[in-house]
């Protein structure tokens, strides 16, 4: 939706749905200042009773050829900054998503592997959930970054170290055929 009128005072007068009790921030290629204004207004109106939920904190989404676009984390951060509060993240690395899956399916963490291309989401979630972790180097993480965390004495950095890594997810195909 467009901003209603030319001035900030007009923007603060756009109608709000009285039933809204949460603001969800996810990937949105049409994210705009108007949406940011509406999100803030809902959060201010509802106070702490209006939830601020984000899908993830990915700061960049890698594309083929080594390029990237801003990720959902940029949008979450914009709303958090405006609202001056932190979003509850339901996606990786928060274990909320894993706990939901475990509640529906018989999953043994000792027999489960988390495969991903990001240390700060995929590997961190896998490690915090007691899963074996496998990093694929075709995404945003380079092996030098892993080695830096591995050599650190910091527990937070150690939690980002995968159990295994492969250059490409295609490297797993022979093992899956067995």
UniProtKB/TrEMBL annotation:
GO terms for cellular component: cytosol; plasma membrane
Keywords annotated in UniProt: Cell membrane, Cytoplasm, Membrane
Cytoplasm is among the record's keywords: yes
GO molecular function: sn-glycerol 3-phosphatase activity
SUPFAM superfamilies per record: HAD-like
Topology class, membrane: Peripheral membrane protein
Cellular location(s): Cell membrane; Cytoplasm, Cytosol
Keyword Lipid metabolism listed: no
Taxonomic superkingdom: Eukaryota
PANTHER family: 4-NITROPHENYLPHOSPHATASE-RELATED (PTHR19288), GLYCEROL-3-PHOSPHATE PHOSPHATASE (PTHR19288:SF92)
Protein name: PGP phosphatase
Gene: Pgp
